[in-house]
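Structural prep section.
Before we set up the soaks we want a predicted structure of the protein with fructose -6-phosphate in place, mainly to decide which crystallisation condition to try first. Input record follows.
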Amino acid sequence: MCGIVGMIHAESVMTALVPALRRLEYRGYDSAGIALLDQNQLTRHRVLGVLDQLTGDMPKDWDAKTGMGHTRWATHGEPSVRNAHPHFSHRVAIVHNGIVDNFQTLKTDLLNKGYAFASDTDTEVIAHLIDLHMTQGHDPVSAFSVAIQQLEGNFAIACMISHWQDALLVARRGTPPLLVGKGPMGYSIASDALGLVDVSDHLAYLEGDSWAIVTQDSAKVYDFSGERKPLNWQKQMLHHQSCNQGDYAHFMRKEMDEQPDVIARLLSQPTPTLAQLYPDLNHVSLLGCGTSFYAAWIGKYVLEQRYGVTLELASEFSYRHAIMSPGVTLALSQSGETADTLKAVAYAKNQGQKLISLVNAPYSSLARCSDHVLDMQAGPEIGVASTKAFTAQLWLLFALAGITPDRAQHLPQSMRQALQLAPDIRRWATALADESNMLYLGRGVSYPVALEGALKMKELSYIHAEGLAAGELKHGSLALVDQTIPIIFLAPHDAIFDKTLGNIHEIIARKGRLHVITDQAGAEKMPAVGLTQCLILPDAPDPIFNPFIQTMALQLLAYYTALERGCSIDKPRNLAKSVTVE
Ligand code: F6R
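Run finished without errors. Recording the tokens verbatim:
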């Protein structure tokens, strides 16, 4: 999704602005731009495509101390230079994340008042609206505060105004995050804490429905009724090194390798159990989107040994008006900023639910509205495809369910051994790279693992991959099985192995292209003929941890298949890391 950065520093912002934008590249974008305010003049430079193009063509002699930048992920209007931010209206420059729901009405009104539009975006109305209020006699601050109250929807915006003072006016309504940072050079703003690495040693999140005047040495915050609000400063915990790719070809590959250490770190620290937090608890609702949803689904298998559990896709949940069983909602989100999850959580809280969030961003919007926050401590996840956050979420769910770290003591080591199977998995990937379709099968808890594996394959390699419950094959999908479609079958030697074996025979009988992922005990019982490939995973310390080990193999398979196909691994097409619009 879009990224915003802005700075007012004691010296030229040019050396800091573009690196800050680069740190937001991971969020996904199709065009980018910066605007500078220097000696009362606004200048801008915008490109379609990547930031390298922006820096390549940019005038080298810019020396402004106030500036802002934007990476755009198109919503209103195609990706193009004319739709890239910042947008201008006379003295006003605007960058914006989110959607102005009532932009059409505002645009019609502004057109009637003589404003000409240079883009197809909803954003441009904001710039013209502020300009309109200034022409009607408002000073810049009051024009800004009146304009933002006319906007409907969820948004974060930053604004510069020429022939006034060196300041950034910023506002946030609803879900899209916006932070203020302070550091030795001055104040900065960003839509993501990563944008403030290197320029700020302290940062503070703007609450929803608030706005601020940011200058080189202050940030004054107000709510929408004009009342002054304090900022809650936190120490900046992210550092340059934690956002580095090191010797890896891709962030994703690095983040996969980090997983055993992430789990080891979590195992070494106490995580409260649900029984400790809520001794009388009977029911748990799980909420998340995408990979976080699949983590929740796997967690359901351990939690339901003790509690009634309801699993909900956050993007579907809020609009169903479901009556929730009284209890605790566990909301899972790597970013803590996913609009669908925040919306679902607001609904759950309205229903009187206690909220525990599992996040990788402990100051995120989700964390800040939670009764308890469990921090994944996975470090920044830059690759768009979620990897280490997924396994960290799994452990936190297991811990909440009461699984003690001593049971998982050898888990990091087993995960490391699974990652060492990379050369074997790469051979599979080479053979599979030209496929158009794949099936991923699993039974029991291996079913949501298969779904997650299929999602990884889809998003990274653009191959259509479908996850199925193996037991469901004969209820329809068996019709797909022939000698052409590759089937990735998760078949651990667990309590339902015999049933799994039955499904494997069903496929063999139809000459299916079976790629089985199993363990030593499973491999010993596999049919001698009929498997195209068989990968033997290291044993998990306990079968309950199989999903962690299987996930290593499925992530590697998606990664190497995408690599073979020449796909953009860290930034798959059309996707964004932090999905801040519904
Ligand atoms: C897939 C992936 C997405 C996210 C989803 C939710 O690899 O990363 O499916 O899991 O967009 O994001 P968070 O966890 O930030 O709420």
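Observations: The pocket of fructose -6-phosphate is lined by residues 289-292, 333-335, 338, 341, 385-386, 455, 459, 579 (CB under 6 Å).
Flagged for discussion at group meeting.
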